[in-house]
Specification:
about 230 residues; alpha+beta; seven-stranded mixed β-sheet; three-stranded antiparallel β-sheet; 5 helices; 10 strands; about 25% helix; about 20% strand; elongated; binds acetyl coenzyme *A
């Protein structure tokens, strides 16, 4: 994915991590430095375009990732740059992974409600021309190390069939724990929660529980795929 400005100079590293401040990374010595506001505008353009491409790839009616959403949430986005040599190079972006902590009520394998705040996979996209080349795995691995989480500790916001295959192939995540919200968790989730998952009082009636799963995808119906397409635990 190319842009009308110098992506290589803007994002010096192969993977750039951005939070709600969308701060342009420090530039390489010797590179001319445009005004900071222009650099931030370029970063916002990249995020908006990536968000649009991801929504299109997932058949979502509108993007769930944009610069303005980034600024109003405590999400973190990992952006992967193409570092292969290009003759007239302004650089290009391969894809991104967006994560964030969310308070969720999730069911365990005995169907008890648990209040948890796991790191969630919120949006993930690799450019169509470069899928199945290992770039998704590279980005995901980097995120796991940086966030210090294990794959089975994650909650996934309405994973696409491709993402379910990806998680199965690279991380052996297959057996899901059935949920009533959009989020998918896998076997091992409760064994590895830090801090431990908090159980709600057993007496509380189901109607009282507000599963504020705040999925960005809830109002973005229209994607063809479903939840829990992996093998579900009976
Ligand atoms: N069909 C089936 N499985 C696929 C496909 C596909 N078209 N593409 C990737 N995969 C899975 C497979 O397990 C594949 O292994 P295989 O080729 O041996 O079958 C594996 O991913 C490949 O791993 P990587 O090359 O590291 O993954 P990639 O760079 O393709 O990134 C990603 C994976 C992000 C899911 C990418 O395919 C993509 O952008 N898909 C479209 C958008 C999407 O579905 N994003 C997830 C939305 S859900 C969410 O974000 C919470």
């Amino acid at each position: 994915m190319e842009f009308p400005f110098d992506v290589d100079a803007l994002l010096p590293e192969r993977i750039t991590v951005l939070d709600q401040h969308l701060r342009p990374p420090a530039r390489r010595p010797g590179t001319t430095t445009p005004a900071r506001v222009d650099l931030q505008q370029q970063i916002m353009t990249i995020i908006d375009e990536l968000g649009k491409a991801s929504a299109k790839a997932q058949h979502l009616p509108a993007p769930i990732t944009s610069a303005s959403r980034m600024q109003s949430n405590r999400h973190v986005i990992y952006v992967l740059k193409d570092t292969s040599a290009r003759p007239a190079g302004k650089g290009a972006i391969i894809g991104f992974l967006k994560v964030g902590y969310k308070k969720l009520f999730v069911l365990d394998d005995r169907e008890a409600h648990n209040e948890v705040e796991p790191l969630c996979i919120l949006d993930f996209y690799i450019h169509e021309s470069l899928q199945r080349h290992g770039h998704g795995r590279e980005l995901f691995q980097y995120m796991l190390q940086k966030e210090r989480v294990e794959p089975h500790q994650l909650a996934i916001d309405r994973p696409s069939p491709k993402l379910l295959k990806f998680l199965n192939k690279h991380y052996n995540l297959e057996t899901t724990v059935p949920q009533v919200n959009n989020f998918v968790i896998f076997e091992g989730f409760f064994a590895h929660q830090h801090p431990p998952a908090r159980k709600l009082p057993p007496k509380r009636a189901e109607g009282d529980i507000k599963p504020y799963s705040s999925s960005d995808r809830e109002c973005k119906r229209g994607r063809m795929d479903g939840v829990g397409l992996g093998t579900q635990k009976g």
